Amino acid sequence: MTTEPTAYHQRVSEEKRGAIVRAATRLFLENGYDRTSLARIAEAAGVSKATLFKQFPTKAALFDAIVTASWDSGREDGQPPAGDPDAGLTAIGLRYTELLGRPGMADLFRIVIAELPRFPELGEAQFQRGKLPYFDAVRRYLEAEHAAGTLDCREPELAATQFLGMISNYVFWPRMLLPRWGTEAAADEHVVHEAVATMLARYAAKG
Hints:
The chain is mainly alpha-helical and 207 residues long. It is built from nine helices and no strands.
């Protein structure tokens, strides 16, 4: 007799986990992190409190899961291989615009910003489990292009900051002040292509 979970039970568990994460994100945004109880989240997700506590024993663990899930979706395809920085940076940039354009990402930042004075650990979680790993993946790609001789990029941290900043300053950050802010796909692509052109003008290996 096996004690291993069946594919069905694994699927049910993942569905419940997803429902919990979605309910928590909505309630944190509507009511605030402090004023949202795990019991209320369980009710909104349609699961028992026992199920929620099995998945997430603390509210902090649940918030960590929200952050990880939000940013992991932008890394699941991995980074492109080195050798063609025009194509590679374009692929990274377009994936970044798609990631930032998801409603859940803006909601996540709003939760952190609203609760940061009382719960600085939320900002720490957002940075350490979300933004930093994503940033490091881009930095490693630039290091790989430098090693391949296609880019002369001796400060990859600075270069990653420049590249992602050129994109997010148009696609994402205005949404923090202007809830109705939205961009067309064609405009996003134009921003990415211009950011790539700027990076190549600065960092392309000479000769």
